[in-house]
Amino acid sequence: MTVEQQESVIPVAQIPPEERPAAEQPPDLPTTIVVAPPTTVPAPSSAPLTYTSPAGVVLTFQNAGHHLSRWFQASGHTPTYNMEDVLPPGITEAPISKKAAKKARLDESDEPAAVPTGPPLGSMRVCTLDLPYTGSVRSGLWPNKGLAKQHASFEACKVLMDKGEVDTSFQPAPSHPRGKTFEERLETKSRCNYRWESRKLAIQDQLPQGTGQGDYEYKTTPEFWTTCPPFQPDHLWASVFQLSPDGEGNYDNHPECRMMCLITSRPLPFWSSVGETVVRMGVGEQPVLQASMRLINGGKMEPFQSGTLEQAQVFTEKLMRAQIQKPLMADLAHVKWLLVPLRRSFKAPTKEIVSQNKGIKLRLKDIAWKEVDAVTDGPLTMPFTHNDMDILQRQCKDRMSTVPSEMVRRNYIVRIRTDLNPSSPHPDHPEETILQALEKEPNPLPELSDPSQPILEVEPAALPKTGSYITSLSIPDEKRPKLYLIPEFEHWHCIPSSVHRTTSTMPFFIHQLESMLVAWEASEKLCGSVVRPEYALQALTAPAGMNVNSWTYERLEILGDTLLKFFATLHFYLAGGGADCQDDPLKTWQDRHKVVSNKTLAHNCIKLGLVNYVRDRRVKVKEWAPRDWDFDTWIGGTAMKKHLKTSEDKSEFRNLGDKLLADVVEAMIGASYLPNKDMDNVITTLHNLTVPLTLFKSWGDIKHVLQRENEDEEEEAKDPDLPAYMNFFAKSKMQYEVFGYTFKRRKTFEDVFSLSSKRETRMKRERYKMLGNAVLDVYIIDYLYENHPTEGPGSLSNMKTFRTTEGLRCALAVELGLQDLVIDGDDKTRRELGRATYFINEARKKADAGLSEEEQGEVHYWEEVAVNHITGSIMEILLGAILDDSDFDLEPTRKIFFEKILPFTEKYCKGPANTDMHPKGQITRWMQAKGCMMYSLDVEGPKLNIGTFKVHDKEIARESAFTTHLAVRNVCNAAIRKLKDEGGLEELCDCASFKKVVPDDKIVEIFGKSRRERMLEAQEKDAASRKA
């Protein structure tokens, strides 16, 4: 543009009104209007192409639209461009051509004659832009709309700078800034939750009304005890129990703990369906020491001889008095169980034998009757024979040392120290002798008669109130307290050490056994006895009752929730007629939510009475005593008035929340699935828990719900116009095969990969996706539950989330090449698929770059790429379609999961040690660990989302992305690099709580271990296991 043309642009105020062209008259609003000079020929408007602001920022036709868009976004308005065709002065509109006029005259149809479209010949384009609170800006004359729009935007930016609406760098500074709506003020996750809650609110009145929490009955006493008759010598049943005090279930690795026999007058109720079970016990807090008792069905015992039953009663009484340290008394007419030890040579049966025979046949000769006789008929304690080494060794074998009194502490004899004598230096205090150390005790010692006698090395025997043998074993052997005693001053106790170790857990064991009996009653009455006793107890145990994640309902609740969602989805899929249903997907979602809602489940829990069986109380060991026992009437002249529990005690009451009740119902559903993964058991449990899924009673019934014909089996009619050889080729149908599965119905295959805009096809894909999502969730949570048995519910939930995101499904579809099977897509769709595939592959290459095969993994590279909804849904649609096409046979989809999906998720998805590694959580926990309170994270959108992280109002990082969650992730990663890796927080933060140093273990807790560290740890574990 020449200088003369630039000077021809003059303010409108300098042009006399009578000289202004009619097409260029300004509007009524007070504004600045840019007009083109009068011309006599159609030519572009003469205007400057650039403008330099006082800050040195150059404004051009090309970047004006970007600056203007940012101002409109900041002010909360949408730009409105109005185009009009204007004839320059001196140019008249050309008349209609003779050909067009003749055609108009000859048009005899009922439709009106075609009106000429397009701008008049010789006209120019003028663009008018409305600026809120400012007025309008009008461009000059330009030959096309693009240039006219650019010119209007260019002049609008200059007007906004003059008005102070943008600064000298054209950054928006609106006088009336845009306010965010409620939903826009939320972060991405909160916005999703808000939409979820809004959808649930639409059916709120169709759900049972919840109370939040309430007081419910607590069943404290198993009904089994009330049905047990008094003991009779010829009606006795045995249950063998074996202790694993370390919680690892290695029962054969602890020969120091004797196997015992629990005798009852009736067989335990669950022996009718299982041969053995495991009773889990937890001792202490933070952390809870875990142990387990293997309980085996011993069958009906041979008749006891006269007086033998009374011997067992006396043995049990003395044993419990020694453990509980209270003057307990057992009446054979009232007590519900007795204890006797088994011989040391008794071998525990294998699980295979127990499972095959539903238990074992315990014989009378398997019981250690000599030890029973020694306890019942002999003295409680006897002095050691310290002057005869052979006798002393026999007396010390499997014995405890004590003083001649009943209610005192005892010690397990470790060994006889022949290298020490009373005058030897004390091993822990060499400055004094063993005798001198013992003389410091409060009780005076008698005069020593044999200075050369050996020394007994012992360990204190832990009683139930101090944590039992479980607590002792948790301390490493070299750190356990050792005592050195002189045999002359000690007695040996009649109860063997091995028996004492096992029975020191009796309060924990009996409490859990009674809870298991209550849980079995719930399973029998409400679930048709399809839930094994140990899983029923786990499903009914709240965290308040057992602070071990793997022993409460929390893990089972995740499994049961997934199974409930799957069967509810399947039910409504079949109820609508399968994939051909044309109902609104929102209605299907609402129908399903009415079934799986926590309010519905809590209502069912209360209605069925399942709430009464929930176990949420722990055993109080110091107050515990066997049920139906009593105290001696007089002990030392003092009456024992404390009431002990009986089998006739009434129920108590406690307060429970609705969410807990709903979780218990879901946990019972999950418990019915284990350990055999039986879908029929799950369906039976759903019916028993009054979940309204009535279309099928077993998994085999599902394939008969939909009555349909196989179209592909019908022989197609021959086309008479085709040659015979063409009809021959038409018979050979194409094999519609994916991942080794051949579709029975060709139409199903086509619907899976079709992007047709037909409503029928779209609805089918939507229903296949709903079904595939549910079955994929079942496979994932089933695998995680089985392969991570000790992980808590939070870890399981995170790992499941990592494996079910739409971004992962996009990456998985690209990895498996599913996007290449898509049909019926237009050019735009295929371009989008191509772009998504390219960026996913590039992200994967970047994640794998420089890593060895062993180091690859736990890299969610798909999180750096925008989600493509087409590739993100293909896998779910395919799984749902295969499940439908196979007549609901789970094997094809399960095979695809284990062969195609699982290897990918195991390679790239985060494991249990790295389940909460989102950069936002990391930077938040890092700032909290450093003690800095002045930091903020903001994201502005909606098109190009810009995230900023500030510390004490100083911007630390700024990143942009096309989606909010990517912008958050990117800016948080940048902030972590700046503040943690590069340092600099010390210069910014002046908070009183600021900490300069964060412990290494805290850093590992926040940011996790590097992949190389985790790989080295795994290699060390593998090497140790191979060596073992």
UniProtKB/TrEMBL annotation:
Residue span of region Disordered: 1-31
Transmembrane segments: none
Protein name: RNase III domain-containing protein
The keyword Hydrolase is annotated on this UniProt entry: yes
RNase III domain: residues covered: 534-677, 732-887
SUPFAM superfamilies reported for this sequence: RNase III domain-like
Domain of life: Eukaryota
GO biological process: siRNA processing
GO molecular function (one): helicase activity
CDD domains, alphabetized: RIBOc (cd00593)
GO cellular component: cytoplasm; nucleus
Cited InterPro entries: Dicer_dimer_sf, Dicer_dimerisation, RNase_III_dom, RNase_III_sf
SMART domains: RIBOc
